[in-house]
């Protein structure tokens, strides 16, 4: 049996450029890191059949990114008798902005390549990313990275620095948002916005380990649109500030919000203050 971990992703900076490309996609630029929060996957070889067993009954096999990634990898390998039983234990909140499905898919491809004895090339991963998306491509490479996307073409560049020792408090609201596709359809990005360039400032702050400037330049271009439809996002940010967070930012396309703290004790104290107010509250930290 092979075991793999799939780490949650946190977008420290999301910049979406207002001019759509001919294919209808927005050019994007992200700065991403991975969190200690993770899902666990295990793999057993079996002939011909791909089966995914998930600890969360709401995740149906054929809608699961792990299943889709496994089927796609088998197609690329060109061997129909490949099969596996994949057991997925979910810890990353679902549809909250942490790319858990994409991270699971990347971990699945790695685990399956081991039990199926496949040698994966960067071209194969890029082909899969064309079907599975930007977050899959990032999760395959992982670490603290800059991610750029134009249409379905992605580039991931490692940032050769470590983040300061932040502790994070994740708040999951009871409300649920529609899909990320819905967020893109409703996205409003001003061509003359004043905060353009913050992601470059964030990158410089990370490279020079400037703690205050990292916090100052955290950014998410989805946040304004999502919070206009879901006021709970602003409420969570205010609650985090009242509980002592240095900064709060929406995770990905939402709806979770992440608060930054200097110490684990401060994050734990904030968790106690907010206990019972939201669906779920999780303490974690970035991994370097």
Keywords:
8-stranded mixed beta sheet; 4-stranded antiparallel beta sheet; Ribosomal Protein S5, domain 2; globular; 2 domains; 10 helices; 288 residues; Alpha-Beta Plaits; 28% strand; alpha+beta
Quick take:
With 288 residues, the chain is of the alpha+beta class. 34% of the residues lie in helices and 28% in strands.
Description:
The structure is a single chain. With 288 residues, the chain is an alpha+beta fold. The chain folds into 2 domains: 2-158, Ribosomal Protein S5, domain 2, CATH 3.30.230; 167-287, GHMP kinase, C-terminal domain (Alpha-Beta Plaits), CATH 3.30.70. It contains 10 helices and 12 strands. The protein has helices at 65-77, 100-115, 122-132, 134-141, 180-185, 198-207, 211-216, 223-229, 232-242, 264-274, and strands spanning 2-16, 28-45, 50-54, 84-89, 145-150, 153-158, 167-172, 219-220, 247-250, 257-261, 280-284, 286-287. Strands 1, 2, 3, 4, 5, 6, 8 and 12 form an 8-stranded mixed beta sheet that branches. A 4-stranded antiparallel beta sheet has the order 9-10-7-11, with helices on one face. Strand 5 (145-150) and strand 6 (153-158) form a beta hairpin. Helix 1 packs parallel to helix 2 and helix 3 (122-132) runs antiparallel to helix 4. The protein is globular and about 55 Å long. The two termini are 28 Å apart. The mean pLDDT is 92.
């Amino acid at each position: 049996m092979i075991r793999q971990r799939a780490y949650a992703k946190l977008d420290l900076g999301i910049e979406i450029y207002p001019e759509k490309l001919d294919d209808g996609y927005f050019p994007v630029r992200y700065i991403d890191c991975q969190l200690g929060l993770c899902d666990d996957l295990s793999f057993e070889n079996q002939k011909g059949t791909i089966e995914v067993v998930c600890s969360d009954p709401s995740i149906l096999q054929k809608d699961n990114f792990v299943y889709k990634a496994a089927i796609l990898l088998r197609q690329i390998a060109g061997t129909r008798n490949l099969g596996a039983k994949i057991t997925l234990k979910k810890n990353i909140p679902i549809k909250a902005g942490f790319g858990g499905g994409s991270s699971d898919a990347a971990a699945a491809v790695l685990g399956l390549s081991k039990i199926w004895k496949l040698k994966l090339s960067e071209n194969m991963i890029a082909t899969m990313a064309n079907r599975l998306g930007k977050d899959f491509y990032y999760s395959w490479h992982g670490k603290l990275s800059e991610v750029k996307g134009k249409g379905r073409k992605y580039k991931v560049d490692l940032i050769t620095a470590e983040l300061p020792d932040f502790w994070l408090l994740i708040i999951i609201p009871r409300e649920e948002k529609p899909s990320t596709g819905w967020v893109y359809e409703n996205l409003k990005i001003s061509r003359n916005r004043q905060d353009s360039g913050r992601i470059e400032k964030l990158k410089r702050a990370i490279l020079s380990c400037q703690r205050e400037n990292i916090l100052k330049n955290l950014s998410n271009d989805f946040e304004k649109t999502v919070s206009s439809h879901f006021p709970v996002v602003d409420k969570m940010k205010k609650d985090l500030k009242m509980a002592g967070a240095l900064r709060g930012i929406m995770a990905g396309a939402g709806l979770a919000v992440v608060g930054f703290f200097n110490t684990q004790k401060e994050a734990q104290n904030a968790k106690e203050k907010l206990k019972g107010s939201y669906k779920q509250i999780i303490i974690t930290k970035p991994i370097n």
